[in-house]
C-alpha cells in the first residue's frame, strides 16, 4: 500500500509539473517561435505596402525595417505590430536580429515574413555575412512580438486620399507604440458625444459612410495579449473641415 501511494504521488507530481510547463509554454509571450523568412528582391532596401493601407508611409516607417506577413497579418489586425526576427545560421546571423513592423500581407515558401531587403540584411553579423545571407534568399528564423517604439511621435491619423468630405471618411492610424492591437474604433461628435462604430475595410484602414458632423473625437479600443481591453480617447480632435490626404496628430501615445 505504501509503495502504491508513493507511486501515485510521484506520478501526480509529474503530471502537475507537465501541466504547468504546458501552461507556461502556451502563455509565454516573450518566447521565440521558429519559422522561415524571405525578402523582397526588388525592394530597393525597403519594403512595399498594399494590404495594410499605409501607402508610401508603409515603406519608410521604422527606418524601412518592415515586413509582409502571412498568418501574422490576422485579417489586418496585425498591421503595425512589431516583431524581433533573427535568423538561426550561426555562420552569418547575429543574436540580436532585426525589429520589423508589419506593413503588408504576403508569403513565400512556408514563410511567416517577407522582409524588406534592408531588414533581411540587418540580421547578419557583418557586411560579408549580409551578402551571403541575401544570396540564400530564404532562411530559417525565430521571432517574437516586441513593443513598437516611436520616440517623440504621437498616434497619428492619416485621412485616406479617397475620402470625400463630408460623405465618406477613411483613415489609417500611424505610430502605434506598445504590443496592443486596435480592435475597434468609434467616431464621436464632440458636442453631444453621439458615437458611430467604424468598419475595418482592410488592413489598418477604418471607414464610415455619412460620418458625424462637426469636430470629431476618436475612441480606440486596444486589446493586449491576455485579452484585456481599454478605450483610449485622444487629446486632439479631428477638425470639422477635415481634408483627404492630411495627417492629424491625436496628442496621445500608448505607454
From TrEMBL:
Residues 167-250 form the Expansin-like CBD domain. It comes from the Eukaryota. Residues 1-25 form the signal peptide. Residues 49-153 form the Expansin-like EG45 domain. CDD domains: DPBB_EXLB_N. It holds the Pfam family Expansin_C. InterPro entries: Expan_Lol_pI (IPR007118), Expansin/allergen_DPBB_dom (IPR007112), Expansin_CBD (IPR007117), Expansin_CBD_sf (IPR036749), RlpA-like_DPBB (IPR009009), RlpA-like_sf (IPR036908). Keywords: Signal. Belongs to the expansin family. This is Expansin-like B1. It comes from Xanthoceras sorbifolium.
Amino acid at each position: 500500500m505504501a509503495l502504491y501511494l508513493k507511486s501515485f504521488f510521484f506520478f501526480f507530481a509529474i503530471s502537475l509539473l507537465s501541466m504547468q510547463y504546458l501552461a507556461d509554454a502556451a502563455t509565454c509571450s516573450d518566447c521565440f517561435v521558429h519559422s522561415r523568412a524571405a525578402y523582397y528582391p526588388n525592394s530597393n532596401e525597403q519594403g512595399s505596402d498594399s494590404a495594410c493601407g499605409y501607402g508610401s508611409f508603409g515603406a519608410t516607417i521604422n527606418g524601412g525595417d518592415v515586413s509582409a506577413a502571412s498568418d501574422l497579418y490576422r485579417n489586418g489586425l496585425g498591421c503595425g505590430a512589431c516583431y524581433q526576427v533573427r535568423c538561426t545560421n550561426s555562420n552569418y546571423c547575429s543574436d540580436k536580429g532585426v525589429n520589423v513592423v508589419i506593413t503588408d500581407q504576403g508569403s513565400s515558401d512556408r514563410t511567416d515574413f517577407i522582409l524588406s531587403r534592408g531588414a533581411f540584411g540587418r540580421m547578419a553579423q557583418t557586411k560579408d555575412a549580409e551578402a551571403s545571407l541575401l544570396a540564400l534568399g530564404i532562411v530559417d528564423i525565430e521571432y517574437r512580438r516586441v513593443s513598437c517604439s516611436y520616440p517623440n511621435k504621437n498616434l497619428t491619423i492619416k485621412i485616406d486620399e479617397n475620402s470625400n468630405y463630408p460623405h465618406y471618411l477613411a483613415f489609417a492610424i500611424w505610430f502605434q507604440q506598445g504590443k496592443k492591437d486596435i480592435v475597434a474604433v468609434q467616431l464621436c461628435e464632440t458636442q453631444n458625444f453621439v458615437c458611430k462604430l467604424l468598419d475595418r475595410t482592410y488592413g489598418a484602414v477604418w471607414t464610415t459612410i455619412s460620418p458625424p458632423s462637426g469636430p470629431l473625437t476618436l475612441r480606440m479600443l486596444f486589446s493586449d495579449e491576455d485579452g484585456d481591453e481599454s478605450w483610449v480617447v485622444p487629446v486632439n480632435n479631428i477638425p470639422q473641415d477635415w481634408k483627404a490626404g492630411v495627417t492629424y496628430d491625436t496628442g496621445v501615445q500608448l505607454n
